[in-house]
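User: Some background: our group keeps a shared notebook of sequences we're curious about, and every so often someone picks one and asks for a predicted structure to add to the entry. Today it's my turn. The entry only has the sequence so far, pasted here. Could you supply the structure so I can complete it?
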Amino acid sequence: MSSTSFKTEFAVYMTCEHCVEDVRSTLAKVPNLDRYDIDLPSQSVTVTGRAAPSVLAKSLRETGRQVIIRGTTGSGGAAVAILEEPFTAAIPEWHSKEFTQKVHGIGRLVQLSPTQTLLDLTVRAAVLRPNKTYEAYIARTGDLSKGPDGAGGVLHHLGEVKVDEKGYGDLFVEKDGLSIWDMIGRAMVFGEKGGPGLWAGVVARSAGVWGNTKTVCSCSGKDLWEEGRDMEGKMESDVEAQLQSSL
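Assistant: Of course. Here's the predicted structure to add to the notebook entry:
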């Protein structure tokens, strides 16, 4: 918790006044808040107080809605990493009309201050087990030609990730001493703690995501909710396929 109040802005998927009331009642239970403003037309929630952004994000997601942190007072940019299976594992699929690697997670990074970065990591796959401990880290390089373990090893440890019985896990954490600009171009790796990396993605700058309230990517023209649902859909379909193959 910060010793001084600061402002944090979130994009929260809301469609009606009932959604607004759910968000309002949730924030009313969070300690150390000075005020919060909820705007339905822009689907934005702005919070002022001393509570950590990770605490706010967790509380807002407990309403069952999509939540994306846009930034905080003095924030300095954002980045994203799409966690995919190793390239070599997907090569047999080249015979299909559209070659795609399976997506198992996404990591979002927001620079909260010159010396602190917020990580919002979500993973989902049937192969993950709740009795195992997983971790995420930033590798020394962004070279994934030899898979996650070929990216040079751990440069910055991001934290441990717990998963549920459905193979879903997430991590919200503020990391001191980390700068987004030092992570861009390097790989974010996810895997079992002390074991080989399972999935990885290169960290890329995503200032457009946080600076534009309507569109994530000018290429697809999709808004952030459509992109989010597409990402969740890819992870969900991969989980279902893995479950079916194990029957």
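Suggested note for the entry: Residues 6-72 form a domain with the Alpha-Beta Plaits fold (CATH 3.30.70.100). The first strand starts at residue 6 and ends at 12.
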